[in-house]
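[stage:ingest] chain + small molecule (glutamine)
[stage:ingest] validated
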Amino acid sequence: MIDFQSILTSINEAVIHEKDKGKIADYIPELAKIDINNFGIHLIDSQQENYAAGNSDEQFSIQSISKVLSLSMVLGLIGEKVWKRVDVEPSGDPFNHLSLLELENGIPRNPLINPGAIVIADILVSQLENPKEEFLAFVQNIANDYTIDYDKEVAKSEKRTGFMNFAAANLLKSYDNLNNDVDVVLDFYFHQCSLSMSCAQLTHIFYMFMNHGKCRRNKAYLTLSQVKRINAIMLTCGFYDEAGEFAFEVGLPGKSGVGGGIVALLPNKFCVATWSPGLNPKGNSKLGMLALEKLTTQTELSIF
Ligand SMILES: NC(=O)CC[C@H](N)C(=O)O
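[stage:predict] done
[stage:export] C-alpha cells:
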C-alpha cells in the first residue's frame, strides 16, 4: 500500500522552500493580486480516500482547466460532430497563439488552446438556453458541490484585457467557425475560465476522468470512448508547448491553468490537483510541475 499522505506531506515541505517560485500571470490584472507563497496539493484515490497538504482547500481561478469541462459538456450534447470544427493535434505553441489558426483555415489545433476552447464555447452558446447557468450547474453536479461559482471580478478583469482572445474570436468568425457574436461567446468563455475552485474540489470533479466517466456518486457523464479521448487530448495538449515536458517529467494526462492550478490523473488509480500561482515561462505552475514530478517518481506510478 502506498502511503499517499506522507508522500504529499513531504512534497509540500520540499516545494515550499524552493526559492524560485515562478511568476504570477499579470495579464489578467485580478490574478496579479494573489500571494505567490500559496501551495496546495490534494489527491483522491479510486476508493475515494482523500489526502492533502498545504492550502488545498483555498479556492483559486481554474482558468484553462475549465476547457476540459466545457469540452466534456459539448461531447455530451453533440457528440463526435465537434471534431468537424476543432482538431486533436498538439499545437507546440503557446496557449494564445494565432498563427496556426490562420495557416489552417480557422480550424483550431485542439480544444485546449484558446482558439479551440472559444469554438467549444460557441457550441455551448448555440446549444444552451442559459449557457452560464447551465454550464455552472453541469460542473456543480459532477462535483456534487453547489458552492462552486464563477469569480465575476476575474471574468470582468479578463474582459478588459483579453485582446488576444478578441483577436482569436474575430479570426474564427472570419473563417466561418464562430456562429454567435464575438462578445457573447467571449463573455461565456471569460466566465468559464473564472470558475473558482480548491485543489480538493478539482479532484472531486476530475475523479470522473480516472473512473470511466463516472462521478463520485457513480453517475456516468461521459462514455468510455469519450473519456479515453479526453485523457488522450490532456496528455498531448494539456500543457500547450510544454505537453512533451510534462509527459517526460510527470507521465500523466493533465491540464494546467494560468491561475497556477494543475490537475492530473492515473486511470483507475488516483486524481491529483496542485496549486501554486507562480508560473514558468510556458505558463504552467512551476511548483505544481515539480510537485507532480516528485509524486510520480516517489510512488513509481505513471501511465508509462
Ligand atoms: N492558459 C490559461 O489558463 C489561459 C486562460 C485565460 N482565460 C486566457 O484565455 O488567456
